[in-house]
Target: Sorting nexin
Amino acid sequence: MSAKAKAIYTFLSENKEEISIQENEELIIFDENSVDGWFQGENSRGERGLFPASYVEIIRTRSNSNVTDCSISPAGSLGNDSSYFPSTPNTTLHSQQSYYDDDDDDWDDWDDRSTVVDDGDHTRSPGANGHAHQSPLSNNPNVHFRSKPHMERQDSISSSRKGSMVGRNLNRFSSFVRSGVEAFVLGDVPMMAKIAESYTIEMGPLGPRWKESPQPFSCSIEDPTKQTKFKGIKTYISYRVTPSHTAHPVYRRYKHFDWLYNRLLHKFTVISVPHLPEKQATGRFEEDFIEKRKRRLILWMNHMTSHPVLSQYEGFEHFLMCADDKQWKLGKRRAEKDEMVGAHFMLTLQIPNEHQDLQDVEERIDSFKSFAKKMDDSVMQLTHVASELVRKHLGGFRKEFQRLGNAFQSVSQAFMLDPPHSSETFNNAISHTGRTYENIGEMFAEQPKYDLFHMLDKLSLYQGLLANFPDIIHLQKGAFAKVKESQRMSDEGKMDQNEADGIRKRCRTVGFALQAEMSHFHQQREVDFKDMMQAYLREQIAFYQRVVQQLERTLRMYDCL
Model:
């Protein structure tokens, strides 16, 4: 049965089976049962087609009241780990995979749920991330482990106290609460005896920043190949992934990237994790789609390897290096049992000793918030303009040049109708001019894959990164509010000053982490946009040089008349 719905995010269609929807637009859904995470329906402009189920809310009217219940559609529902995920349009939860993954088969042989993996001596007590203490934790020089953390203790709770006196947020669905940062700031996250990983924030010339990885690396994604299993019943695309510091390739499917993405979201609450390329309901094995997905996975991987924290994550190392099926399953489950996620991730941070006034930090974050909003708007505008230009290249420009070429050909044919006064050389030159403009039309149609497609890929990556920041900034805003509330209670004699100082101290950790992430974003966007603009301009210059060469060759045909 059909149902009314409202779009909660903007979606731009990329093929003829899909339709575009705008935020807050009223929609009609033909069937509430989504297919592979997509609804079929109609937008307010009367266009019919597919759009992502996670981008809309179904509007249901409760039968026992006059209240309209706007609840997220089943395809967008959250799993048990939803408290750790920011509510962004591209956030793909593990609970969605059974109907949203484009090559889902219940993990089949990749991780058979019934398979029991023996990880060795069960008498040894497990350490952080599920590792036994006596086994080597990592061979990656970019991952740093330590048995006892030498870091500023983040909690100031006595063992006898049961939580902070500062009130909790009434909205338990806010990202501040769901991420666990509220519990961390209030001191309700106990310090663990051993922390086997640490991430350092240092003071740079422009403020806090993540400490760079001592041995940076890159990673290539190549050779997307269609594979089959179960005697051809199941088909999927496999990518060859080769990290530079091992030079040993591993082969990964999209679902493997999706698993890693979910682990990153689950763990790194104050980091803007880049979104994966979006799924597509139809045409998954078409050459153009496969090529587009590969390009965007490459950008995603480049961002991962360039991030000082994400690149050091043990689960990322496992994704890049493990080629053995049994070890893969063991490492996968080990990553899923990682205890240092969400609020506990904050315990792994080592922050500088420099004092920062919280009001100055708040003003700096407000300034970044305004910047991020403006950049998001400008990226969206450039995306719309570039997308429209692609359509013109593929359609309008090609047709106009073809029409011009046909018109020149028609003139040439007319000149041939009076043989005594016609010049074959002249007619051939005019006819060749027509063919030249037809060729130029084809050149325009081919050009986007050399420049505009790559620009749109980069803009899509940054749309995802920018979409994460409102929720991340909300974490800091919530922490600031708790500091102010605790200080007020301390001034009124309702809270011990030591407890208020502890809340302020933990708020500093959140602030340092957010500023470090802001600093990395600024640094990386300059690199990325410089590369994007240079590549676009080079391709544009080369394109118009080819056009000029065609025109000059045609012009020379008239010189000998």
